[in-house]
Amino acid sequence: MKAETKDFYIEQDKMYVATDCIIFGFDAGKLKLLIFKRRVEPQKGAWSLIGSFVKLEENVSEAAQRVLTEITGLKNVFMEELKSYGVADRDPGYRCISIAQYALIRVEDYDRELVEKHGAHWYDMKEVPNLVLDHNQMVADALERLKRKARYQPIGFELLPEKFTIPQLQQLYEAIYQKELDARNFRKKVLSHNVLIKLEEKDKSSSRRGAFLYKFDHDTYQQLLQSGYNFEIS
Amino acid sequence: MKAETKDFYIEQDKMYVATDCIIFGFDAGKLKLLIFKRRVEPQKGAWSLIGSFVKLEENVSEAAQRVLTEITGLKNVFMEELKSYGVADRDPGYRCISIAQYALIRVEDYDRELVEKHGAHWYDMKEVPNLVLDHNQMVADALERLKRKARYQPIGFELLPEKFTIPQLQQLYEAIYQKELDARNFRKKVLSHNVLIKLEEKDKSSSRRGAFLYKFDHDTYQQLLQSGYNFEIS
DNA sequence: ATAATAAATGTAATTTATACGTTAATTTTA
DNA sequence: TAAAATTAACGTATAAATTACATTTATTAT
What we know:
The structure is a homodimer of 234-residue chains.
Chain A: H1 3-10, E1 14-27, E2 30-37, E3 47-48, E4 50-53, H2 60-72, E5 78-85, E6 96-104, H3 112-117, E7 120-124, H4 135-152, E8 164-165, H5 166-177, H6 183-192, E9 196-203, E10 211-216, H7 218-226
Parallel strand pairs in A: 1-6
Antiparallel strand pairs in A: 1-2, 1-4, 2-3, 2-7, 5-6, 8-10, 9-10
Chain A binds a DNA duplex (30 and 30 nucleotides) through residues 165-167, 182-185, 187-189, 202, 204, 206-212.
């Protein structure tokens, strides 16, 4: 590299880059958020999203995956960038920008022990306490994103077990949209996309009659996408 | 601040944070992109988006506004975060992440002189040349975002002069969606939202008869938003 | 055998989207 | 000054999607 190039860079300011994860779950018919007791100052002991500084040699998305895996023990979790939080004085310590990511996990899957070790807690989305820094804003923004995105992309399934019933799926959408849906119309709409595989088994945990289990058909969905199809729920 | 806090931060890696602007315009019925001859290594002289390093004392969004104002002379331009580009080796110089922002500007408004001084050029979106680093990816991502967002938020108007005709508006949407639209249905749909104010004047630049000019009614739009209304075009 | 419970289904009414042809206003030109 | 040319403006009929709404079914517990 030429000397002038190096000089140009050297004159510039460097800062910390962090990533914070808004981790959503779905349990007992409710949308949940996984938060943590903060272990470092400032505000040690306060509730916080989980996050980490990004290391020089890792991608931002890798940093987020690393954090998530450390905490939950899960790999291949759905995670997507939300937005950056780059206000100069957002962190009273040093200049630090954060790239927030939101993750959708199956509550049944994750390693409870690991989570408990980290002082974590699943909060009902409607009862999220005060969080440090701008984390409450991140959560609010992530919920908005989830609401919008669930409409036109089948990401809701990431929050359900692999096998689920239509009434469970409806509960999930009701929790995300914060709105009641008509069971007959919901079922019709969902099934009309032809991306659910009906299984022989029933789930009898919530009714005497039991409800048939379904699986999301990723392959068919991918094929449909290719042919210009649009997923949409409600 | 406690010593332990300081230590915790000091151990972490710092990096350069940049912002790059994807600047869209609309002229002669076509969607345009404003790009620049790069003035610094690496790849001095190559085509590039305009950008800047973020300074310690400024917000990321301020940095983007600063760049845009330097180049175009415009303030209060529509600009919104696209996403971050945080792959570890994206810039062969030093570790640098970029927060890309896309801007919509009225081509008529900007200061041509200033733009020419900066080695800028408006390219037709369909003829964008090779850009440095990951900038072509940024442009592609921004176009996708614009396509999606124009559907449910009236951001297209940011690209038109304050007064515009329905056929002009249609041309714009056709350019964004890359798809022809039916003039009768388009007019019906747009007017049904009741967010356009019809003026007495006509624009005769593109027909003998002339087409009536309209203005976007920001106030009414804001009111409608409050009452749970959804803007949607096509 | 009966009661209780949530699952599963269909149809009619309304709203929204699509497809498509004709007339109107104006300028240019013959 | 009449005719030709050109884009703007408009309406209706059909199809598709959404909404609203009530009954029957499968199963377990009593």
